[in-house]
Design brief:
- The complex is a heterodimer of chains A (200) and B (395).
- About 13% of the residues of chain A have low confidence.
- Chain A is extended.
- Chain A is α+β, with helices and mostly antiparallel strands and 200 residues long.
- Chain A contains seven helices and ten strands.
- Chain B is of the alpha+beta class.
- Helices cover 28% and strands 25% of the residues of chain B.
- In chain B, strands 5, 6, 18, 19, 20 and 21 form a six-stranded antiparallel beta sheet that branches. Chain B has a five-stranded antiparallel beta sheet with strand order 13-17-14-15-16.
- In chain B, helix 6 crosses helix 7.
- The chains are: A alpha+beta (200), B alpha+beta (395).
- The interface between A and B is large, with 55 and 92 residues.
- Strand 10 of chain A pairs antiparallel with strand 9 of chain B, so a sheet runs across the interface.
- Chain A: It comes from Microbulbifer harenosus.
């Protein structure tokens, strides 16, 4: 059989942005969507509170756990939530420390697991934080540095979406915005604006 | 190559809503038009479009290598001198590219002729990779098209695979996507790319171009103050070079899609350079820089295009009854905000006409592989961003 010149298959469920007419007519499709959202690429991770805890709970040895802890600390410095004042930080996370001009919550523990990075599996040690704002529905939940909640604190094993195990961007303090876009703006004022784009 | 009428799918607007295709109607006129389709033979696709696209892409890369190595040419391509290192470094370190679209005039017979290369910010990607694919699938399912009908369109498959490669080449970084505010078309294109990147397992974020910030070290940030370390921008390099934050380009550790060296390809100066390096190539139209017009004496009509322009803006035709250009007449075909950087001239080669429509073929590449075509129609000779999009089949 000759090969196709087109994409062999597209998973339409993953391309859908709004429920289609078919959904209303065939309730089974709703189940598919719920199932997709319910179990799309989850991973099992362990959350440990210290190097000793790491040695007890995971297959890593003392040296590996110490390295993991150091790496988690570095990740916390780089990607952790950052606040302008100690009060703002403590209102959400209780215990905070100063780093440069920022205040960062203290890491409650770190995740140990493996992730698929491109084609390689590599260990990752992302920091986690315990959210302690008593007025929030997220009280006593563990979260990653980008604010993704992974569950109630106090467990060792958590099931997290695979995005929770991905490398997080560094967080910094923005000092100015709006430095891009002026040429497009000048050109779009030509002819009274346009709804088309700047692609071609 | 035939233009065939067909009944639109009765529920196509519902399908569009279902899959988030919001810009099927622009300026109050239909943009997506499925009242007809174009039919190709496999030979027309493979011999006349697929193979030449990959060959022209290789030729374009030779032009980049030549321009990068030559200050005079960098000036001709209007790359601001303070960004030369930025562009050169990206080429010399082999920064990977994602995609591009070559625009061709093709009649169905003989060689397709290259109009230009949209190598930096091509759009109509969603319509091509997904939406016309779905159109074929739906029409086969309802019996309106034969089961053996195929389409030259492996765009989505190749995009996802390319994103997997790019993540492998760019380890440990999240990918930020960006486009301008207030353009549904660009936002739709970028959303589609985000979907493909996520399918490939990439952690992706979005920020509008106008919202990009910087910190004291000159690193770019999104609205959550996250440092951008890898960015896809649907925004032309030639704009970014000239804007305030352009000063920080090259000083911060960002991997770019498209890479900075694409500034040399998405540039009409490419066309006279291709003709200089590959004169007489069957897929090229003769093209000249302004100071080479003495070589263009044999052409009665030349199309004058700005070095930088988008969506068919600021095109005119220069006519001459004799070899003396002093007596030339200029007919302006489209207005626009471009042209301050100068112009190039390309031999006139009108688009083929199918019925009342002038038809342009966009041939897509993912990295260096031909990946499909898109078809645009207009009642005028120039394809604009308002020109209609029509699907195609191979039979």
């Amino acid at each position: 059989m000759k090969s196709l010149k087109r994409t062999a298959a597209i998973n339409l469920d993953r391309m859908r942005k709004n429920p289609g007419r078919n959904f209303v007519l065939r309730p089974i499709a709703l189940g598919i969507v719920a199932a997709l959202m319910g179990c799309s690429s989850k991973e099992e991770v362990k959350v440990v509170a210290s190097v000793a805890d790491c040695v007890d709970q995971t297959e890593l040895d003392q040296a590996q756990c110490e390295a993991a802890y150091q790496q988690a600390l570095q990740e916390a410095e780089r990607t952790g939530p950052k606040y302008d004042s100690r009060q703002l930080c403590e209102a959400e996370f209780g215990n905070c420390r100063q780093s440069g001009s920022f205040f960062l919550p203290l890491m409650t523990g770190f995740m140990v697991g493996q992730m698929l990075d491109g084609r390689d599996r590599r260990q990752y040690y992302n920091p986690v934080y315990r959210y302690t704002n008593p007025y929030s529905g997220h009280y006593d939940r563990l979260m990653t540095s980008d604010g993704s909640v992974i569950g109630r604190s106090g467990k060792v094993n958590y099931t997290v979406p695979s995005t929770a195990t991905k490398p997080k961007p560094t967080v910094t303090k923005t000092v100015s915005r709006g430095g891009f876009g002026s040429v497009a703006s000048a050109k779009s004022s030509w002819g009274g604006g346009r709804s088309g784009g700047w692609g071609g | 190559m035939l233009r065939m009428p067909i009944n639109p799918r009765p529920d196509w607007k519902e399908r569009a809503r279902e899959f988030g295709f919001g810009f099927h109607t622009m300026y109050g006129e239909p943009y997506w038009d499925e009242s007809a389709y174009y039919q190709f033979t496999l030979e027309q696709i493979e011999r006349d479009l697929e193979d030449p696209s990959e060959e022209i892409h290789r030729m374009c890369l030779e032009v980049v290598a030549r321009v990068i190595a030559d200050d005079e040419l960098m000036r001709r391509f209007c790359i601001p001198e303070r960004h030369w290192d930025f562009v050169r470094n990206s080429w010399e370190s082999g920064d990977p590219s994602l995609y591009s679209r070559l625009d061709f005039a093709y009649t169905g017979k003989g060689p397709a002729k290259l109009y230009e290369n949209n190598a930096d910010t091509p759009t109509s990607l969603f319509e091509t990779g997904f939406w016309q694919w779905l159109w074929l699938q739906d029409n086969v399912d309802r019996g309106a098209l034969p089961r053996q009908a195929d389409q030259f369109n492996s765009l989505q498959e190749k995009l996802v695979n390319r994103f997997r490669d790019l993540q492998f080449l760019t380890p440990g970084r999240a990918l930020h996507f960006a486009c301008c505010k207030g353009t549904e078309e660009d936002r739709g294109t970028v959303q589609y790319l985000q979907d493909c990147a996520r399918e490939a397992g990439i952690e992706e974020h979005f920020v509008f171009i106008e919202d990009i910030g910087r910190d004291t070290e000159g690193r770019f940030t999104d609205l959550q103050d996250q440092v951008i370390s890898w960015m896809f921008k649907l925004y032309p390099w030639e704009f970014m070079f000239r804007e305030e934050f352009g000063d920080y380009l090259g000083g911060n550790n960002i991997r770019w899609l498209e890479p900075p060296w694409k500034a040399i390809l998405s540039n009409k100066a490419l066309l006279p350079m291709l003709w200089r390096m590959f004169p007489g190539h069957p897929n090229l139209l003769p093209a000249f820089f302004e100071d080479e017009l003495d070589q263009a004496a044999e052409f009665d009509e030349l199309v004058k295009k700005p070095i930088f322009s988008r969506e068919g803006a600021n095109i005119s035709i220069v006519k001459s009854a004799s070899s003396d250009r002093a007596g030339h007449k200029t007919e302006v075909l489209s207005d626009g905000p471009y042209g301050e950087e100068g112009y190039i001239y390309q031999a006139m080669y009108p688009l083929p006409k199918f019925g009342k429509n002038y038809t342009l073929i966009g041939s897509w590449l993912i990295d260096d592989e031909a990946a499909g075509i898109s078809i645009r129609e207009d009642s005028g000779l120039i394809t604009l961003d308002s020109s209609r999009y029509l699907p195609h089949i191979i039979l």
